[in-house]
Amino acid sequence: MAIDFTVPDNVIMQAQMVKFIAETTMRPYARQLDENEHERPTAFVEQMWPILKEQQRASLERLEKPSSSESGDGEKKKKVSTQYLRLMVMVEMMAWGDAGIYLCLPAAALGGAAIEAVGTKEQKIRLLSRFAEGEQPVWGAMAITEPGAGSDNSAMATTAEFDEETNEWVLNGEKIFITSGKLALEESNGLVIVWATVNKAAGRAGIKPFVVEAGTPGVSIGKVEIKHGIRASDTAAIVFNNARIPADNILGSPEVQASKEDKGFKGAMATFDASRPLVAASALGVGRAALEFLKEKLAENGIDIPYNQPYHKLTAIQRDVLEAEAAMKAAHLLTLRSVAMLDEGLHNSLEASMAKVKAGRASTFAAQKAVELLGAMGYSREWLAEKWMRDSKIAMIYEGTDQINTLIIARRILGYTRHELS
Ligand SMILES: Cc1cc2nc3c(=O)[nH]c(=O)nc-3n(C[C@H](O)[C@H](O)[C@H](O)COP(=O)(O)OP(=O)(O)OC[C@H]3O[C@@H](n4cnc5c(N)ncnc54)[C@H](O)[C@@H]3O)c2cc1C
């Protein structure tokens, strides 16, 4: 695979626009929304909804209309996409503005990624249209985690039973820690992709994705979390009590032993292949914010970071900053690689996990160093350094903890199965 480090002009222009948004509707509200966890970033949402709606509409149009890259003789010209590169740059910039506010983007989000990964064309058009129209913003979410099933998804206890008389699926169980769960189901006409088992004895093969739409009877929001970081983000439990959804709101096949094309629980993994690089990008944004601020404050105190000095001539502070910057740079390159592979349509599970682990660790290290090197003021709520330290940690927890992603990396490199290395 050829590696090209040039970021196209249109992506740079888009990044500049997002930088303006980050500076005007994110950073100025960062502290306020951190102090008042369940307030909503209204200015940001109002600014983003028309933009995201338009993007979703264009994407649906591409899906509905025959590809214009198809030549007269029907042969497809291969056009390299920059879709994920663009997303990576945007997400990094927004997380630089504020990682919690970024997670409040009114969009299909992880729910959309699951629909894209597993849904049929008809389902994509039917389900994603709500994110492309209307005055009111709409949110999507994805629910896998349960009180008894976090890293070990095979322990999932939420059930989906088919009622032949009414031609409906009946869902029972509870999902916890769902990002934008309340926004999707209570505060907008959104949807949540809920993973549930149709046959517990079948383990992972029995786990299927179901679309639960806002307003479904039997669905309620449970505990709304009070968190350590990314406090602007909505994190809620969702309870299913005989919740009935239409038969065609299952994504993919209902069969446990489905055909090869049916992705089943592998669909969740395909969703993560696309979303983990973006978690990495958000971590990079937080780490960059912390490092930039640290360097600015050090410079105000007469401490510059030299890039042309041998190691033994550097002070401990300079070494720490350079170490943090090097880790961030390495994570940035890995993240670029994982999105370049996505854009080329290559299988990137290994690189997606690597990027997420590396970026989570690099940004956590950078934010911790910022707090440490800034002393008491680093610890004070007057500055955002302590907040970045709290915000950075989430990249090591959601969408597979560091330990789980490290296991995935080890399995892929060493050629072990899930059972051989768990
Ligand atoms: C803010 C926030 C937002 C979230 N958003 C969502 C969401 O939108 N949708 C959703 O479905 N979930 C979401 N989650 C849940 C998140 O994905 C889980 O918390 C995560 O997968 C870990 O599961 P757990 O909390 O049950 O921890 P556990 O699985 O109980 O793990 C506890 C510890 O044990 C370690 N561990 C577990 N198994 C192994 C192993 N085999 N080898 C080595 N170590 C292991 C873990 O790495 C971790 O350190 C969110 C969580 C948070 C905090």
Report on the structure:
With 422 residues, this protein is an alpha+beta fold. The protein folds into three domains: 9-132, Butyryl-Coa Dehydrogenase, subunit A, domain 1; 140-249, Beta Barrel (Butyryl-CoA Dehydrogenase, subunit A, domain 2); 266-414, Butyryl-CoA Dehydrogenase, subunit A, domain 3 (Up-down Bundle). Helices cover 48% and strands 13% of the residues. The protein has 13 helices and seven strands. It has helices at residues 9-26, 30-35, 42-64, 83-102, 109-118, 121-128, 181-185, 266-300, 316-343, 349-373, 376-379, 385-392, 402-414, and strands spanning 140-143, 159-163, 168-179, 191-197, 207-213, 219-224, 235-246. It has a four-stranded antiparallel β-sheet. The protein has a three-stranded mixed β-sheet with strand order 1-4-5. The structure holds flavin-adenine dinucleotide. The site of flavin-adenine dinucleotide has 22 residues, from strand 1, strand 3 and helix 13.
List the helices and strands and how they pair.
Blueprint: H1 9-26, H2 30-35, H3 42-64, H4 83-102, H5 109-118, H6 121-128, E1 140-143, E2 159-163, E3 168-179, H7 181-185, E4 191-197, E5 207-213, E6 219-224, E7 235-246, H8 266-300, H9 316-343, H10 349-373, H11 376-379, H12 385-392, H13 402-414
Parallel strand pairs: 1-4
Antiparallel strand pairs: 2-3, 3-7, 4-5, 6-7
The structure holds flavin-adenine dinucleotide.
Flavin-adenine dinucleotide binds next to strand 1, strand 3 and helix 13.
